[in-house]
Amino acid sequence: MIVLLYFFAFLINRCVGVIYHLNDSEYNRMPALFALDDYQSCMSNPEGLYCLAQFDLHSDQSTELITLIRVSINIF
After folding, report:
1. DSSP state of 32
2. 40, HSE (Cβ side, Cα atoms, 13 Å)
3. pLDDT by residue (tens digit) across 30-47?
4. Within 13 Å and on the Cβ side, how many CA atoms surround 47?
């Protein structure tokens, strides 16, 4: 019975909807980040696979999504 409780505690601890850790092979699949792109020209380029932009998010209300974004920013 105790083993079953430990198993469920471990399982619940690992069940999250946000990726907090990437292994090396997953991380290496990400494109290199050198600088922010000219967003308009990147979006108009048919071969533009990744377009980077910098922006500030603001919300009048604290929603679950805003909270998730704030937590993600603090982790990464």
Report:
1. P
2. 0
3. 556 566 667 777 778 887
4. 0
